[in-house]
Specification:
Layout lengths: L5 E3 L2 E7 L1 H10 L13 E6 L2 E5 L2 H11 L2 E8 L15 H13 L9 E7 L2 H5 L5
Antiparallel strand pairs: 1-2, 2-6, 3-4, 5-6
């Protein structure tokens, strides 16, 4: 796996931009022709000279598989708060966090999140067999 992953005690995490959300934003801003094929995952031009990383759950799962950890679960991050930008929620922060947690765990909501968080674990047999996690 690339250095953007983190392994500790056999656990691995990856937090990357959601390619689908990047493309959705470009379509809504009329910066992308929906008749053309979607760009592949990786570094994606988001318009105005800016670039970001856009990945898919399938692509990240493949990276995990090649590095050894099994995927335990994946979450969507910033499902219900992306529109806030850098502004924190108002006094309803506990409700917003609860909504974000629940939506980030469930389809179809997590699939439209701005970020993808994948959690994996190296199988115990490999950890115990002397393979450092």
């Amino acid at each position: 796996m690339e250095d953007r992953s983190f392994g500790l005690a056999g656990r691995y995490n990856a937090l990357d931009g959601n390619l689908g959300q990047v493309l959705r934003r470009r379509l809504l801003a009329r910066q992308l022709d929906p008749h053309l094929p979607a760009p592949p995952a990786g570094i994606v031009d988001v318009g105005g000279g800016a670039v970001t990383r856009g990945d898919t759950v399938e692509g990240l799962s493949g990276s995990f598989a090649s590095a050894g950890p099994d995927i335990e679960r994946w979450y969507g991050v910033r499902v219900s708060t992306d529109h806030l930008g850098d502004r924190p929620p108002d006094d309803d922060l506990p409700d917003v966090l609860e909504l974000e947690w629940e939506a980030g765990r469930r389809d179809p909501y997590r699939s439209v999140a701005r970020l993808i968080h994948i959690v994996g674990r190296k199988p115990a047999a490999r950890r115990e067999g002397g393979d450092p996690a």
